[in-house]
Design brief:
Blueprint: H1 5-12, E1 15-21, E2 24-29, H2 33-36, H3 42-46, E3 55-61, E4 66-71, H4 78-86, H5 90-100
Length: about 100
């Protein structure tokens, strides 16, 4: 399934920040996501770096329900990640994600 920017916003609403430094975001994932977001798989999330510029790596730890995202701060700035997690300035965040989507041939 293709993950839309709106779906990324929905997924991020289940995240709570554990730690966040420029270029590395670690979040706890609310277990409710399993029941409430059924149309997105872990592999869909893990392939985001190949689909969105600025995201270098996503590591999912199922045991402790955390996700670590390594990203390029110059491309997708830390404050926009903070907005995404907090559900603030969502229209701007969606526009950034749209602009960063890689061309899929």
């Amino acid at each position: 399934m293709e993950i839309t920017p709106q779906k990324i916003v929905e997924i991020a609403s289940y995240f709570t920040v554990i730690s966040h430094t420029k270029g590395r975001l670690r979040v706890r994932v609310n277990p409710k996501i399993q029941n409430e977001v059924s149309d997105v798989s872990l592999s869909d999330i893990e392939t985001l770096p190949s689909k969105i510029n600025g995201i270098k790596k996503i590591k999912i730890n199922k045991i402790i329900a955390s996700v670590t995202i390594e990203y390029e701060n110059e491309i997708f700035p830390k404050d926009k990640w903070d907005d995404l997690i907090k559900g603030q300035n969502i229209d701007e965040v969606i526009q950034i994600i749209e602009n960063l989507k890689k061309e899929i041939n």
